[in-house]
Design goal:
Elements: H1 2-27, H2 32-41, H3 43-64, H4 67-90, H5 96-113
Helix pairs in contact: 1-3, 1-4, 3-4, 4-5
Length: 115
Amino acid sequence: MFYLYSVVLLFGGLTVINLIFSYQSKHIDPMFWTTFKFQLMMIPVFLAANLSVGYGVKFGVKAAHNLSYVLVTAKCIEVLISIGMGYLFLREVPNWKTWVGVGVIGVGLFLVKQK
């Protein structure tokens, strides 16, 4: 059950964080004060997202007993979310090189889990 909690919390928190930065890159003026105001308004959302990621890592370590495995898994989830955000906000279609990179990360995830 801790695996499920971990994946859901990691996916939720990392999605929110990537959504905020993707939205900022697409819709917020890059001038300092505009960006500062946007980031200031996002502090409560970042707090919730960071708590989610933190508890996702904590539950993942409880389930897997391996911090490296949990952090690599979280990074793999974040890469997949980033690909989705690129498509959602900028209509970037992943090419074969992107999927080869995700495959390499998957192989790395498999290798980290081996004893």
